[in-house]
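User: Show me a protein chain along with its predicted structure.
Assistant: Here is one chain, sequence first, then structure tokens.
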Amino acid sequence: MSLLTMIVKMSEGLGKTCAIFFLTLIFSLPLGMIVALLRMSKIKPVAFVTRFIITVLRGTPLMLQLLAVTYGPYYLFGATVARNKLIPVVIAFAINYAAYFAEIYRGGIESIPVGQYEAAEVLGYTRVQTFMRIILPQVIKRIMPSVTNEVVTLVKDTSMAFTVSYQEMFTIGKQIANSQTSFTPFLVAGVFYYIFNVIVDYVMGRVEKRLDYYK
């Protein structure tokens, strides 16, 4: 198989890799904020349960979570395994990354001086207005480097979808490598992931610069 043919075949899985990446971000970023707020809740049972769930998600392999979400319903309840494995893959990724984003959000929120909340209260802002107009913009600026790091990691983690035989780019490359007894497909995949990450890093860097006015 020529290098060009190999690249064309692997590029067919690139769209599925991008689907995992973008759908995970769409769901995990807002979910992470919800989890962070629950983690910071003054209701102790809620905060305790949320913290426990976060430790489980961060303390167990993403690969195991992929297997649990994809095949768990079948083994536990006899449910049919989803034909479109993109659904369980995105669910597993979104839940996993929401746990990491939640801790990043929490760190950013807790870094804001208490005086800002008090000043907003004096000015007549409600708690929601204070958070949305004063706290959140500063939090976003402060957590951008950490969020960027997680997003870059997500690009590489999409390759774990091969665990449940989802035909994304790395899975196709692995199949070609096995059939051709060649390491070249892995090198091609590495170049794909590198270019993807360069683009992500550039975009996130531009976003961070746009937030420089919060200095």
